[in-house]
Amino acid sequence: MPDISPQTLVVAIEAVASEIRSLRAALAEGHAAPEEYQLLEDRLRAAADLERAYAAAAKTALNLPPYDALTGGKHDMPDGDPL
Fold first, then answer.
1. Residue 83 CA to its chain's centroid (Å)
2. CA 14 – CA 11 distance, rounded (Å)
3. Are 17 and 72 in contact (CB under 8 A)?
4. In a structure prediction context, what are the per-residue pLDDT tens digits for the chain, which is 83 residues long?
5. Side-chain half-sphere exposure of 16, counting CA atoms within 13 A
6. CA distance 39 to 23
7. What sign does the CA torsion over 7, 13, 16, 22 have?
8. How far is it, in rounded angstroms, from Cα 2 to Cα 30?
9. Which of 70, 54, 65, 79 is nearest to 21 (CA)?
10. Domain boundaries defined on the chain
11. What whole-number distance in Å separates Cα of residue 34 and Cα of residue 39?
12. DSSP assignments along the chain, one per residue
């Protein structure tokens, strides 16, 4: 995996979580385009990858906030847990 800073990882996690929330809101309201279903799946996979990378970074980096705090609460995973 490429080496990225913990701060960059934090920003990426927050951005992906925000996109997931937006896509889910559009889907729930019925305003989503067909390709947004695929975008949501892609973002969910990215969130899972980022969570694994964050867990690894948290072992060595000091003062990282809890993962759930970055995602706005309970985080989203491919097994269907809500964001």
1. 9
2. 5
3. yes
4. 578 899 999 999 999 999 999 999 999 999 888 899 999 999 999 999 999 999 999 999 889 999 999 998 764 544 445 45
5. 25
6. 8
7. negative
8. 38
9. 70
10. 6-60
11. 9
12. -----HHHHHHHHHHHHHHHHHHHHHHHHT---HHHHHHHHHHHHHHHHHHHHHHHHHTT-SSPPPHHHHHTSSPP-TT----
Asked if 78 and 45 touch (Cβ cutoff 8 Å), the reply is yes
20: tokens are 């997931």
| CA distances for 24 relative to 17, 21, 29, 31, angstroms | 11, 5, 9, 10
Residue 66: partners with Cβ closer than 8 Å, 6 or more residues away = none
Residue with tokens 């695929």: 38
Residue pair 61/6 in contact by the 8 Å Cβ criterion = yes
